[in-house]
Amino acid sequence: MTLTSDIKPKVLILNAPDKAPIDSVAKLKEMAEFYSIEQASHDAVAGRIAEAVKEKGPFVAFVVFINWWSRPFPWPMDEALVGPLVETGCKMFSAGGAGYDFVDVKYMSSKGIYYANTPKMPALRTADSTAMMILQALRGSSEREADARAGKWFDPSKPLAKDARCSTLGIIGMGNIGKLVSEHMQHFGMKVIYYNRNRLPPDEEKGAEYVSFEDILVRSDVISLHCPLNEDTRHLFNKEVFNRMKDGIIIVNTSRGAVIDENALVEALDSGKVLRAALDVYEFEPQIHPGLIASKHTTLSPHAAVANETFERDQQMEILLNLESFLKTGKPTHVVNDVS
């Protein structure tokens, strides 16, 4: 389906794409009419969508340019939020981020509607941050920094830094981010093994070894999580799974917080089963488990792995590319649910 006619299709946007190049926005404005609403609470945005549909609709697409620095976000993107758009013929939704656990994809698929994410923008940034956090955890940098800030000098009685060249990294989820993390850490001499729903083609493994989930648990010195959050992965790492790992494991998570049962992680940290944990995401964001905050063996970041000076621009560009492709061909570039 190609969306071309003498009458321009209408697109509803949440927030203006204020970081994207002006010429990119101008090109799309030649293809469609844009109407904008502002970010607010879920219920307020739902009301604004309903009002926009009534007064200006119907819309063929709804795209979300989240203001990441302010809350609340209009999550979840569910029937209560986007129902009026769906009921009047909207066929494409897109928002920023590789993850889409906040989107009711099942509902959209049942209505023949595409959801498009932005997998490329966060991949390199998250992989860079993950590599940094792996090295921080291997070296115990948070513990050493705490000593220095307390006026204490190097204490050789504490666990020494682990040598990356003698360590095995287990990656759970070998998508765009997992592949980049694998390449990054092999540069530091780590052996990389990975578990994925399906084995990668050999030319994409680039030195990483495909193993079972159980092998990841018993062979890894560091486990880095890069799987999506869904019914199968929620609390994938729980008390029973921690007990099956080798003693002194390091856990790094830059995927989604609820992949880990945080109570079980805190217990494993307290017992020494888990030597250290480096986390950018949490089960009940923006709250962080008090046991993780209190632990001397955690490196914590406030879901900021992708946050650098260019990420908003690049994310907005990737959303606009989804929209441009949809307007030209009827299908966005990065489709999560292929309903064609």
User: For this structure, what is the CATH class of the largest domain?
Assistant: Alpha Beta
Shape: elongated
Give the count of structural domains.
Answer: 2
Contiguous runs where pLDDT drops below 50 for at least 5 residues: 1-5
How many extended strands?
A: 12
Structural write-up:
With 340 residues, the protein is an alpha/beta fold. It has two domains: 10-97 and 310-329, Rossmann fold; 122-300, NAD(P)-binding Rossmann-like Domain (Rossmann fold), CATH 3.40.50.720. The protein is 38% helix and 15% strand. The protein contains 13 helices and twelve strands. The strands form two sheets. Strands 8-7-6-9-10-11-12 form a seven-stranded parallel sheet, with helices on both faces. The chain has a five-stranded parallel sheet with strand order 2-1-3-4-5, with helices on both faces. Helix 11 links the parallel strand 10 (249-253) and strand 11. It starts with 9 loop residues before the first strand and ends in an 11-residue tail after the last helix.
Give a short summary of the structure.
With 340 residues, this protein is α/β, with parallel strands linked by helices. The protein has helices at residues 22-29, 42-56, 79-87, 105-110, 120-139, 141-149, 176-187, 202-205, 213-219, 239-244, 262-271, 290-294, 311-329, and strands at residues 10-14, 33-37, 61-64, 92-95, 114-116, 168-172, 191-195, 209-210, 222-225, 249-253, 274-279, 298-300.
